[in-house]
């Protein structure tokens, strides 16, 4: 354990804390009952509705309901994907420097998938919420995307550091 702690870099500790913060946020949002969850997403749904159909207010009530339901579905699924993208990004940095196709990278994805499973299981016990396999897959896709984005960032950081080192050693 002592050796493991010695190998953890300061930036990794920061990203472990950020990973935990995202996990806590997900847990809190998942603990909201269906009505509160709907209220939370309705602000973004209103914006989406206006983007989807600029004539929304002049549509028939049936058409408005149809548009609202589609927009609400999209907003909710994008929320799942987005927050799990953040989880994957932070968890990936927590795992440290590595290549994309390694056991550590697979571990980040498995970690995200298992957290998504636990999140959906948790929602099964919340009033008006349900456990959906589709959401687990959306969440896992978000984690994978976040991890890939982190590799882009790591690559850019590496290139900048290498360029600075080359410039300072060449003078």
TrEMBL record:
InterPro entries in the record: VanZ-like (IPR006976)
Pfam family, one: VanZ
Keyword Mitochondrion: no
Membrane-crossing residue ranges in chain numbering: 12-31, 73-93, 100-117, 137-161
Chain ranges of the VanZ-like domain: 15-153
Domain of life from the UniProt record: Bacteria
Keywords: Membrane, Transmembrane, Transmembrane helix
NCBIfam families: vanZ_1
Protein's name in the database: VanZ-like domain-containing protein
């Amino acid at each position: 354990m002592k050796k493991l702690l010695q190998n953890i870099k300061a930036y990794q500790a920061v990203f472990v804390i950020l990973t935990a913060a995202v996990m806590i946020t997900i847990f809190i949002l998942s603990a909201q009952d269906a009505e509160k969850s709907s209220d939370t997403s309705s602000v973004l749904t209103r914006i989406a509705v206006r983007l989807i159909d600029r004539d929304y207010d002049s549509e028939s009530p049936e058409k408005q309901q149809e548009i609202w339901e589609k927009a609400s579905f999209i907003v909710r699924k994008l929320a799942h994907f987005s927050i799990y993208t953040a989880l994957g990004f932070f968890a990936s940095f927590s795992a440290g420097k590595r290549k994309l196709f390694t056991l550590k990278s697979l571990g980040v994805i498995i970690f995200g998938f298992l957290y998504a499973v636990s999140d959906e299981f948790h929602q099964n016990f919340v009033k008006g919420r349900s456990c959906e396999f589709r959401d687990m897959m959306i969440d896992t896709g978000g984690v994978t995307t976040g991890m890939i984005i982190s590799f882009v960032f790591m690559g850019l950081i590496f290139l900048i550091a290498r360029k600075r080192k080359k410039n300072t050693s060449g003078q």
